[in-house]
Amino acid sequence: MGKQDGKRAKLLRDLVRHAETMIQAGVSRTTRTCSTPSCGCHVDPSRRHGPHMYLTFRSAAGKSASVYVAPEHVAEALAAKGAWDRFWDAAVAVAAGNREGRRRRWQRGRRARRAR
Ligand SMILES: [Zn+2]
Known about the structure:
This protein is an alpha+beta fold. It contains 2 helices and 3 strands; from the N terminus they run αβββα.
């Protein structure tokens, strides 16, 4: 197996591995006021509650949507978003390799036709 084949096999393994846990989303952190009118959060911005984390994304229907992430799940959510980023990097690298492979094959075909 050539060096390029080994690199490609690793990228394909990475795609599958990251697909297991990836979440395609943006991360948003907001603070908010609560429903208790006497709470300090209503008069002092530094006493607002949070920050609360949300994963933001577009639904299949194209609408903006978000998922609240409780503090104990923040690390897992960030890892899932990171898995998407690495999945994307691996997909771009595989696609570039596919493009180069086709380009070489198509050029060989043109040279062979010209030689006839
Ligand atoms: Zn409050």
